[in-house]
TrEMBL record:
Keyword Iron-sulfur belongs to the record: no
Domain called Deacetylase sirtuin-type: residue spans: 11-380
Keyword annotations from UniProtKB, A to Z: Metal-binding, NAD, Transferase, Zinc
Full protein name: DHS-like NAD/FAD-binding domain-containing protein
Organism: Rhypophila decipiens
Amino acid sequence: MAESTSSPTPVPKVNDDIPSFKAHLANSNRIIAIIGAGLSAASGVATFRDKTSPWATYDSFMISSPAGWKRDPGLVWQFYSSRRREALLAKPNAAHYALVDLAKRKEGFTALSQNVDGLLERAGLEIRDHDGKSAGEENNSGQLIRLHGDLFSLVCAGGCGYVEHDNVDDPVYGCRVLAEEAIKERMARVHILGADMDLGKKPPKVSALLFEGIALKNKRILGEEKFREANPTVGDAKSLRDVQDRKGKNEEIGKEVGAKGGGETLALHSGIDKSELPQCPGCKKDLLRPGVVWFGESISEKIILETDEILDKSDGIDLCVVIGTSSQVWPAAGFCERARAKGARVAWVNTRIEDCKSRREDDWVFLGDAGEVVARILEP
Ligand SMILES: [Zn+2]
């Protein structure tokens, strides 16, 4: 028989001792930092799943995957135009500068960053690039490896090999449909519905793909003549809500969107023709796309070789600092364990202890906003 016990769950011990971390840091030269979105949060760059972003109503796969691109490249470009604009308006924070400063002090430092916002580069960290294919010029002594590419590189979507670096034009290639106003206008229409769905304490988690599925189902039930569009409508959205409670509100929304009997389509498709998007100057046949790694895509072989060199072929690693990234998500988890295997002690910087899943008892854990914490712990 199991003994009944009332002892509370033990609180995991956290080693947040800055002096011992600094002492270890001072004696370390071979240092790696595994960096995620948390580093740029203090700069105002939204994390990918930021609930406050109007793009949060979209499936990640619709706006950031090869399948999404195939379905609607205009929508993908509008999303990335917004991200480019956001990153351009942001400024590197104290943590970015602290890492650049560390890189200057420690020759054996390398940052493995999942961020695509260009803020570490703007703070002054040089990109490691053996053949000049990632950053435009060869740089064997660079201390930044960009695992997921960057927002300001453009590549041919058809694979002709055309690459453009440091394109900070807004809108990209002067495309009118990617201008801020065009995107805002479209998002405002989507947002009318989104705002309504957030009513109530527990809004239904509804993805745009689900809307589309519902629309297709309605089309099958109603027949082609009665259902004019395959796109979801305000009427479709209505069926997802408690109609009794929100009848008046729904009618109001219908008016606002300009719906005629719920027939107005919601702007889940961009409606943008390919001819209006950035064209590849190399082959003149395909579109240009952002030079980032999408969901469902793998990190380039070149980057994998460069990280292997840092993590596996080095004599040893003294310290691994994991900043603003959930350790459950590849590649952070794998990199951290590989660094441990090379002798590294590990320090975590995160807002949530839950995100430091693979931490061990003698790791350091510094909880808080990376923008502030990193600068404090790296200060010489
Ligand atoms: Zn091309």
